[in-house]
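Please decode residue identities from the backbone states below.
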């Protein structure tokens, strides 16, 4: 379990990619565990988008298309659209685990949920049961490192080869939500990309880094979805919590940015 969390909670090194010189080429080892081989049938983010993660801010339509391609090309990945935003962008949830677990996924979920039933007369032994981990990215759309990093995490889980990753997927069901706030992410990506210089500029006063109000933090109606986990007033939140309650995961991670000059988590 600790190794699983280490691999995905700290893929936040991606933030550094946004300050790499234009057209600088880095290998996947920069973002992901070094020395990993990948299934050639599954396209990497760079192969799919035509640029390296970090060169441009991913639009939500690009991110969604890539997640659908992973579900098409990898037998480790299935995908559902669990809701639509006010601007009719799809909210997606990937279920990533071993092919063997996918064939038995309904039984795995039922056994997992049985552990939470207070009326159960007997508590099932959970030795050998997969841990259920939820990875959610960028509830604030203008904290884009999360959603951009999700493309790399999803690729690693879908395509990485070797005993370690195969054992991890055999012992985990990973629920990955690549963009909790698609409308905010889309608004931010449009702003940042259209004001982007050919050469990266770190000056915080440059127009690329100075969004006009209402900015990309909020959803279509300018509501902070990080304040909607309990009220559930918006379709993004209602759909997400419905999926959460379908699984009641052991671990939920919520990937934000701390600030322009601070770390990603």
């Amino acid at each position: 379990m600790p190794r699983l969390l280490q691999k995905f909670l700290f893929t936040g090194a991606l933030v550094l990619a946004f300050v790499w010189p234009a057209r600088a080429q880095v290998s996947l080892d920069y973002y992901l565990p070094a020395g990993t081989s990948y299934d050639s049938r599954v396209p990497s983010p760079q192969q799919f988008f035509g640029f390296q993660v970090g060169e441009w801010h991913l639009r939500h339509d690009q991110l969604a298309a890539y997640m659908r391609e992973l579900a098409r090309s990898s037998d480790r990945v299935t995908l559902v659209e669990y809701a639509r935003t006010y601007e009719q962008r799809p909210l997606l949830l990937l279920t990533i685990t071993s092919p063997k677990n996918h064939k038995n996924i309904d039984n795995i979920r039922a056994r997992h949920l049985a552990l939470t039933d207070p009326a159960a007369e007997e508590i099932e032994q959970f030795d050998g049961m997969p841990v259920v981990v939820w990875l959610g990215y960028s509830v604030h759309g203008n904290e884009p490192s999360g959603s951009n990093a999700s493309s790399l995490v999803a690729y690693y889980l879908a395509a990485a080869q070797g005993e370690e990753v195969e054992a991890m997927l055999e012992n985990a069901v990973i629920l990955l939500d690549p963009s909790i706030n698609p409308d905010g992410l889309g608004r931010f990506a449009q702003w940042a990309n259209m004001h982007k210089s050919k050469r990266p500029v770190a000056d915080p006063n440059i127009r690329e880094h100075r969004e006009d109000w209402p900015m990309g933090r909020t959803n279509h109606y300018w509501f902070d979805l990080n304040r909607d986990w309990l009220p559930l007033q918006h379709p993004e939140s209602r759909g997400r919590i419905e999926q959460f309650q379908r699984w009641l995961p052991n671990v939920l991670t919520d990937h934000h940015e701390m600030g322009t000059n601070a770390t990603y988590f």
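Observation: Strands lie at 37-38, 77-84, 90-96, 131-137, 160-161, 172-177, 251-255.
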